[in-house]
Amino acid sequence: MIKYIGQTRILVAVDCIIFGFDGSDFKLLLIQRGFAPEKKRWSLMGGFIQPEETLEVAANRVLKQLTGLEDVYLEQLQAFSGPDRDPVERTIAVAYFALIDIHKYEKQISHEYHAEWFLLKDMPQLIFDHGQMVELAKKRLRYKAALHPVLFELLPERFTIPQLQALYEGLYETEFDKRNFSRKILSTGLLVKQNEKDKENSRKGAFYYKLDKRKYSENFQAFLKFIPNPDKFLV
Amino acid sequence: MIKYIGQTRILVAVDCIIFGFDGSDFKLLLIQRGFAPEKKRWSLMGGFIQPEETLEVAANRVLKQLTGLEDVYLEQLQAFSGPDRDPVERTIAVAYFALIDIHKYEKQISHEYHAEWFLLKDMPQLIFDHGQMVELAKKRLRYKAALHPVLFELLPERFTIPQLQALYEGLYETEFDKRNFSRKILSTGLLVKQNEKDKENSRKGAFYYKLDKRKYSENFQAFLKFIPNPDKFLV
DNA sequence: CCAAAAGTGTTGTGGCTACACCCATGA
DNA sequence: TCATGGGTGTAGCCACAACACTTTTGG
Q1: pLDDT tens string B58-111
Q2: CA B186 to CA B192: how far, in whole Å?
Q3: Other residues' Cβ atoms within 10 Å of the Cβ of residue B101
Q4: CATH number of the domain at A11-133, out of 3.60.150.10, 3.30.43.10, 1.20.1250.20, 3.90.79.10?
Q5: Cβ atoms < 10 Å from Cβ of A128
Q6: Which of B50, B83, B89 sits opposite A52 (nearest CB)?
Q7: Is the pLDDT of residue B143 over 80?
Q8: Residue B83: Cβ-neighbour burial (10 angstroms; 0-12, 13-18, 19+)
Q9: CB A130 within 8 A of CB A38
């Protein structure tokens, strides 16, 4: 194969910021790095890109390795390229963020990587520039969720409106008026009310809803307004 | 230096989608590729990342090589990683898009690369996946400009409101009501009216405005609404 | 005096926010 | 029966979109 001469070839990795929601808090799935350098310190799950893979395929592979899950919401965040970001050898990392239903993960948990869920508000220090990646992912998710119904990716098939509200409130670290919130959400037409109630979290019980998947994929790109006064929350 | 063993190292390039606005049309700056493969075909300006550079530095370098300009608006778009996107050798490309004042460029034009401005609507076929990059950049810019005052980056220091409107209309390939448009733009408080008029484009003449740079940088992240019915335009 | 583009105001409507009370249930 | 969280309606306000005529001036 002909080659471009005189150019430097570099390691390319993908790192995954994995978000989850446990019904009341936003969480992040981290692993305890098993090899030097920085052995035992907390880190995002990552891996090097392989010869025949696209970045997207690599990110999906890495995610599946850790969680066992496929067909997960995954979005390219940004490439990080500080020449010394990895002290061992120059590596460019392309960060992806994933939104997973935390319950699905728990069913398939692998202890191989010493993975743990951390509260997003209460994260350990991470290696390299992983902390920056998480900050950026949070910002991007806030931005995106203000306009598109992406947060449903974090919920199980059935969920209640109070749960959904807790999810938004967790992401934006604030509280919303529940009357306005439920009106706004229901007015999208994305939710289908079920007959059963969730009786675990209150005495009265809250009705379950499911996502209308057809409308969801049709309207995903639509420009909605989920968050009042977005200026306040979107830096 | 210790190294990660058994991993493949890959070429990493940056490619720049360079937008300009000539007062009535949106344009794209392309070069005619000077070497094989695909010699003589039109292409985005790009270059390989160097050992001590970040991607951002590389993109700025590449942009300066072609245009002579520094301190230009430049934003990372996405990494493109199809294993066969470059037939010579596997290369991952990180695309950046740039917004430049076309007049500044014309002052510093370099003929070294056989660069030419093309109408965005009327582009030649590009090599590799550059066509996809341009499409994505257009989409991203439409999205961004609907919410943030980023299009001012394309204008010279003095500009008129009709010019500004033509700029928005070019990007969204539509027409806006001029009364609503000017009211909306002026209500941001970002513009400072000048005393002179531009007499080149009409008999009556249109007042020049300048950008209030302090307010511009303060409000850049603010969540505005420049485009009526954004759903229509933002896929 | 005519053509061509700049500039400017009003009104109706719909969507947003703010706000408070009743309901169902398990303990 | 009481404590807890679920569920619901309204009114005022503001922002938006739709719309047409006058002004300026160069030729």
Answers
A1: 999 999 999 999 999 999 999 999 999 999 999 999 999 999 999 998 766 667
A2: 9
A3: 20
A4: 3.90.79.10
A5: 23
A6: B83
A7: yes
A8: middle
A9: no
Res A111: pLDDT: 75
Classify B76 as helix, strand or coil.
strand
Q: What is the mean pLDDT of residues A139-162?
A: 96
Residues 6+ apart with CB under 8 A from B231: A222, A223
Burial classification of residue A36, based on how many CB atoms lie within 10 Å of its CB (0-12 exposed, 13-18 middle, 19 or more buried) = exposed
Nearest-Cα residue of chain B relative to residue A143: B223
Residue holding tokens 């009535």?
A: B24
Distance A168 CA to C16 C1' (A): 18
Secondary structure (3-state) at B202: coil
CATH no. of A148-233? 1.10.10.10
* pLDDT single digits (tens) A27-73: 999 999 877 788 889 999 999 999 999 999 999 999 999 999 999 99
Instruction: Tell me the residue type at A54.
Output: T
CB nearest B9 (choices: A10, A53, A146): A10
